[in-house]
Amino acid sequence: MGRSVLVTGGNRGIGLAIATAFAEAGDKVAVTYRSGEPPAGFLGVKCDITVPEQVDAAFTEIEAAHGPVEVLIANAGITRDTLLLRMSEDDWQSVIDTNLTGSFRVAKRAAKGMLRLKRGRIVFISSVVGMLGSPGQVNYAASKAGLIGMARSMARELGSRGITTNVVAPGFVETDMTAVLPEETQKQYLGQIPLGRFGLTTEIANAVRWIASEEAGYITGAVIPVDGGIGMGN
């Protein structure tokens, strides 16, 4: 029958690759999106995860169509990059509200159903930046680092009920965001990556699908780097 899977921000990039990987494995996949059109082949639910009422309504719709969410991939996120002294209160708050608080919000809502089922998988999509830091990304790095502490706390709270909580931390990945970087910047990044290339969205998706599988049932509170080696030792 497949599991009920929700991928937030699943309409493009890494999120869409993750949604596709689960669908190909036979799961029933819903994706949330904030703007544009939902991708074909999934249950698309328009939802701004910074609005509690929209999150609750999205889960209600998904539960009616697919049953309680058994696998949550908290992927939705934004960037507002700028140097610290130029970073406005809104630049800071909007990134924290979406990336960190939004992830807390969807995880809390998903956990209610998982506790009743006595099983579940929660995966937060962090970033190597959350551990290494990056100039111009104080807000983004803080939000992604926060996911790790949140995941590990949830792992301790929810583990006794058969719910695992893990983090996947991508490095630099071939997406629309990296494609627009200046060539010189791309060369600088590539020079720091032991494997000498950017990752593929499918490589992130495969790691996420595995950590949410039965095969990974004894792993919780872990941070899985998928970064070509750039963050090793962190």
Automatic annotation (TrEMBL):
Q: What is its EC number?
A: 1.1.1.100
Protein name (Swiss-Prot/TrEMBL)? 3-oxoacyl-[acyl-carrier-protein] reductase
Instruction: Kindly give the PROSITE patterns that the UniProt entry links to this protein.
Output: ADH_SHORT (PS00061)
Q: Which reactions does this protein catalyse?
A: a (3R)-hydroxyacyl-[ACP] + NADP(+) = a 3-oxoacyl-[ACP] + NADPH + H(+)
Instruction: Give the species this sequence originates from.
Output: Kribbella deserti
List the Pfam families hit by this protein, alphabetically.
adh_short_C2
Subunit info? Homotetramer.
Family label: Belongs to the short-chain dehydrogenases/reductases (SDR) family.
Q: Which gene encodes it?
A: fabG
Primary enzyme class = oxidoreductase
